[in-house]
Amino acid sequence: MSRGGGKGPSLKDKLDGNELDLSLCDLNEVPVRELAALPKATILDLSCNNLISLPSDFCSLMHLVKLDLSKNRLQQLPLDFGRLVNLQHLDLLNNRLVTLPVSFAQLKNLKWLDLKDNPLDPVLAKVAGDCLDEKQCKQAAVKVLQHMKAIQSEQDRQRQRKLQAEREMEKKREAEQRAKEAQERELRKREKAEEKERRRREYDAQKAAKQEMEKKTKKENVQTRKPASSSRPPPPPRHKHSWSRSVLRVLLFALFCVLCTLAACKLTELRRQPFCISVNTLYEDVLAALQNHKTLQNLLQQNSQQ
């Protein structure tokens, strides 16, 4: 237990039944841990000390029924002060309180309240009124609770309106996002259709140009063939050429056969055969005749020169 001086007696020594008197102990802070270990102390007197604030864990002392915090220097109460739901009697006389936490509205069992000699907000001071006797202090508890409940309800409504506005804004953003996405999809679809139509027109144009070129080329070829065919003389009958070529082939084949036969009769063992003997004799006679003919031509040439 913190004091202006050193350590004092334990809290158990100060416990009298269910009442714990810690007034005039020069306390700078509340010994919450030690108080939590004494759940029987439902009446707690912390008046006439040097308390500036209450720790947040003070609100865990939910067994308190009567609490005296008068004549300290409290500037505010913990935000969750309303957790002290069993509190029935609260003395906050002569502190430095301006407002009360909204959770104060949860003190549904509060029957007695003294807020005199505090620099209260004018509205709260008017609601609390004076606590000069038992009746006025009880009325102060009722009126302040109603006032704080109204504030809490208004804050709840504001919170709900804020949440509703945030939800509406979120829905609006989602709707705008969906509209934007739909617009982008429609734009992509339109661009895709336009691109497809452009490619189709290009394909049709290329196909038409190709067909036109083919027609032009075909027409030029037809015009080129007509003059050439009219200027050429009529070709000779093809049957004469074919007959001459046939005769020439027969003569060449006969000459080839003669040469082959002569070669066989001159160069192979067949030259002793009667057929080859006749062929060789005929060949020699022809050579002799050709030589005599050549000699005769030479003589005639010499006579003509003389």
Secondary structure blueprint with pairings:
Layout: H1 11-14, E1 15-16, E2 19-21, H2 32-36, E3 43-45, E4 66-68, E5 89-91, E6 112-114, H3 122-128, H4 134-231, H5 238-267, H6 274-305
Parallel strand pairs: 2-3, 3-4, 4-5, 5-6
Antiparallel strand pairs: 1-2
Helix pairs in contact: 5-6
What does this structure look like?
With 306 residues, the chain is mainly α. It is built from 6 helices and 6 strands; from the N terminus they run H-E-E-H-E-E-E-E-H-H-H-H. The chain has helices at residues 11-14, 32-36, 122-128, 134-231, 238-267, 274-305, and strands spanning 15-16, 19-21, 43-45, 66-68, 89-91, 112-114. It is rod-shaped and about 190 Å long. It starts with 10 loop residues before the first helix and ends with a helix. The model has no long low-confidence stretch (mean pLDDT 86).
